[in-house]
Amino acid sequence: MSRTLAVIQSLILLTSVMILSITPVLGEDNDGIVIDEIVEWSTDTDISENIYIKSNGKLTISSVITFRSVAEIYIEEGGVLDLIENGEIISQKRASSLSTLGDNMSKLIIPTGEYLEEMNIIIVSEEPFSLNGSKVYVNEIEELSMSGETFRIQIPGGEQDTQLSFDGFGIFPIINSIILETPTGIIINEYKASSLTSDNMLLYGENGVSINSLGTLQITGNSTINGIDISS
What we know:
Layout (H helix, E strand, L loop, with lengths): L2 H15 L2 E2 L11 E3 L2 E4 L3 E3 L3 E3 L4 E4 L2 E4 L3 E5 L4 E4 L4 E4 L5 E4 L5 E5 L8 E7 L8 E5 L3 E5 L3 E6 L6 E7 L5 E8 L5 E6 L5 E2 L1 E4 L4 E5 L2 E4 L4 E3 L1 E4 L1
Parallel strand pairs: 1-3, 2-5, 3-6, 4-7, 5-8, 6-9, 7-10, 8-22, 9-23, 10-24, 22-25
Antiparallel strand pairs: 11-18, 11-21, 12-17, 12-20, 13-16, 13-18, 14-15, 14-17, 18-19
């Protein structure tokens, strides 16, 4: 075999095992992104389509992939989705409410100490639920019976954050958000419930992205999946 022919064959072999690093593209049917070979996404990308990983496909993600709309990731049997090296899949639409467990077990910390002045805490329930029949304990001392879709608590000024503990009688409140406002009704800040420090509370709501896998899903190297439902 000539030296030239040997070099050519070596190049062909190397090319055949290379991992492609490309920007996501639509499949031929324009109904999503089709992965039917070995592909790596190493550039942060926003996506609004479904992803189909075929039986002969492997998608490696080492970047941040953000879904801007409702979508699904399908992994066929034999297909592989591999997150490595701090890779992330993020859904902009995600569950953000918190469901309480009752018996004064569920706690939520409100950062009132950041503002010092007197203010109101407004507890906003998840639609279409209400706060009827449930109680809130302020700093484990003051007990208040809640009602309606929103409930307002007056908090004195100070440097301490406020702890709210929740209880119910068969119907435990589901908290959508917390609003801080001045005594005159000017909104200071609004927090999604899931963004606050909590204890013994369950995430509630719908995520915008789901992974349906008959194949392999691997998450290594400090990689994460945020706001995504997984079924297999």
